[in-house]
Amino acid sequence: MKILVTGGAGFIGSAVVRLAVERGHEVVNLDALTYAGRLENVAAVADSPLYSFEHADIRDRAALARIFAAHDPDAVMHLAAESHVDRSIDGPGDFIDTNIIGTYNMLEAARAQWTATGRPPGFRFHHISTDEVYGSLGDTGLFTEETPYDPRSPYSASKASSDHLVRAWFHTYGLPVVLTNCSNNYGPYHFPEKLIPKVILNALHGKEIPVYGEGLNVRDWLFVEDHADALLLAVEKGRPGRSYNVGGHNERRNIDLVHAICDCLDEKRPRETGSYRDLIRFVTDRPGHDARYAIDPDRITDELGWKPSVTVEQGLEKTVQWYLDNPEWWEPLLEIEGVGTRVGTA
Ligand SMILES: NC(=O)c1ccc[n+]([C@@H]2O[C@H](COP(=O)([O-])OP(=O)(O)OC[C@H]3O[C@@H](n4cnc5c(N)ncnc54)[C@H](O)[C@@H]3O)[C@@H](O)[C@H]2O)c1
Fold first, then answer.
1. Per-residue pLDDT at 285
2. What's the confidence (pLDDT) of residue 338?
3. Residues with beta carbon inside 6 Å of ligand 1?
């Protein structure tokens, strides 16, 4: 299959690109290389004859028309997005432009190409979204594909808007779309502004480890390579017009996750005195911080046969080891604006 992957230089997109090439797919990686996009993330496949790169912005409709005509992909996996909730609080405009208008541009470019090539029924427009569109859960219950949308942050509202556009293009124009909504990812190449790499890197530098509020917010964690596997299954076998929730039943309170990372580091690279847990500091909560996310993944398990390969403990161990082994990847990123400082306090 020839797949046009947008955002393929980002955290999840690069895992998709690496896995797709490994499985023999032809991949065109379309990415604007914002602060979050790094070509180092796809270095492992950059020399493959199956891989090519298009430096382009999904806000640029003319560029998209050229790229679709030049490559005529069998499928699109649309991951390009502004993805950091805290940044969306300080500057929602980029999230509206890229996540909503950019998705609209991608849908129109895909529809034009699909129409020009005789509307092949096997074509797929796979939109990669988040469980954050469903809002916040109480102490019990799970998000299913039928849970009503109730986004609370500029980020999740922009993703919810893009999901609605994608469904509208299916119902109105018949474009064969598939959607996936996934829980929080973690793993190698995770940009250091996000919780798990931030905890690992602050700990390694002997800096305070900030935990929002009382650390009681619950997230459902999925190893990024398991997500990439689910995404390839969805683009290959997903039914047009259908949504699939992706998650691994790995709910953890933030404070418990941070403790687990500290304990893993205590074992792998002990401090001279004390535990990395001593560096934990509770800081002002994020405005509108959703209390709990938890995914019911039964549909993707039952219909497509997907299940995750690692538990959160195994995935965290791999992730911590990867950051210990790859300082040349993360060291330069710590200098980028907003990475080492708190943003999104509104
Ligand atoms: N990280 C998570 O836990 C998570 C969970 C569920 C869903 N998602 C979704 O998965 C997708 C990828 O998330 P991620 O964490 O890998 O994000 P990321 O921020 O690591 O990567 C985003 C990529 O998109 C590119 N990009 C941004 N704006 C662009 C534009 N205007 N034109 C072209 N390229 C652009 C960036 O350069 C970068 O390579 C997003 O759509 C996100 O909403 C993420």
1. 86
2. 80
3. 6-7, 9-13, 31-34, 36-37, 57-59, 79-83, 98, 102, 128-130, 159, 182, 184-185, 191
